[in-house]
Amino acid sequence: MSFGSIFAIAAVVFVIFVVGAWYIGTMNRFRYLDVKIDEALSGIDVALTKRFDSLSKMWSLAKKYMEHEKGTLENVIKMRNQGANTIQEKQALNNEMGKLMSGFNVVFEQYPELKADRSIAETQAAVMDIEEHLQAARRLYNSNVSLYNQLKVMFPTSIVGNMIHAEEKEFFEAEDRKREDVVFE
Amino acid sequence: MKLAEDKRLITDAEIEKLQNLRSDSIKKKIIPGLALAIVVYIINYLGIIQLPSMLFLFLLVLGIGYALNGLRAYKSAEYLFKTKLMEEVLGAYYTDIRYNPSQGLSESDLAYTEFFRDYDRMHSHDLIQGSYGPVSFTMADVKTERENKRLERKDGKPVYVTQFEGQVMFIDFHEKILDANVMIHEGRVKGQVGYEIVKTENALFQDKFTVQSSDPHTVFYLLTPHFIERILQIEETRKGDLKMLFKDQKLMVAMDTRRDSFTMNGVKDYKKARELFHSEMRFVVDVVEELKLNKDLFKGEK
Fold this sequence. Notes:
The complex is a heterodimer. By secondary structure, chain A is an all-alpha fold. Helix content of chain A is 81%, strand content 0%. Chain B is of the alpha+beta class. Chain B is 43% helix and 27% strand. Chain B has helices at residues 12-46, 53-93, 107-113, 203-208, 216-222, 225-237, 270-290, and strands at residues 95-100, 121-132, 135-152, 158-172, 182-186, 196-198, 209-213, 241-247, 250-256, 295-296, 300-301. In chain B, strand 2 and strand 3 (135-152) form a beta hairpin. Chain B is elongated, with a radius of gyration of 25 Å.
């Protein structure tokens, strides 16, 4: 075998090796982000559960003032019992809990004696902290989804994405009420 | 921020007087004294004039003594200026102040910050402890050096290269209870053991800083969009590389300014020195105010 043929074969093997290594690396990157997204999603679940628990506690402390919000609470309980498995379901549950929280805020403004109650003040502080954790979980999830979707749409990683049937993931949107303009009355 | 006239402990007239005292000690004592000693030595060495040994020694000692006296006056003016100015500066912003120029942070304090790992020797001095409102802090000047094994002095002693020279601060941080540590470095750095690099959504922040933590969720919990903007504000108003670590309800900050605080080296104008010292000492105020550490998020302003 001549030197030229050996060189050509070595070059081809090298190129195959590099392309193969790149393919495996990119595929692993997709898989890694998949796991990170699942991890972030479970973080959202934990935050939603904590939010539900703290809102339930708030309800039990202020229920006699909250009769008109009973329908919202029933919606929340129903959605929770059905289980929120998809992103849309989690968003819907989060939105409904957001409405309940708005209801509480309205009641607290109407009845200042409620706000002065120590248990309610502590629960309110806990709810605010949980909301911050929920925002953190949402931003972490969206950050990982963004990285995943970038890999999916950009060339040449999109080639690997198509080969492994990767699909674009949905972002976890902010609550509807938080995206509306603030109304001053 | 300009300090109100009535809070100034050292007036402009006093500054001018001390400045004149300093320049007079250089022009009228140090330089003439040294000149006399050098001239007498050279004259005697070259044999231009053969001075009797007693006279030679007398003139030499006179020249050196005169220069040393001038140096003493120079140092005294500087010391007086510095201590009065420090009292003014520290008293302007902080309470419960304890200052020790010869004390500093210990090696275990530095190890706790996790900013300083591979150094061969360190010095720390000018320890200041105090409070800004409800927030307590401790700060000191720190210098760390690493031995440069590629260079060697003629006498065989090792050559040291400065790794860090600036201020290190420990500030109370009770805003949030964090489940993990969060470290923020200015510029690109390698991930530290036990930490992973976390990217936030703010592109400008990502360009300027590297964020690390063992828990990405804690990074997003701490670094809200508002908080990120405030850190960017602090970075814009300060020279020198900035490092921050949120750990165990404390915020640790290291500013690599390549300068000791409260030093008069290279400062000729005392009025500018006052502005510089105020600016340096305001850093804790800026951090506390920008990051709102003196406000309780849930219970309203303290």
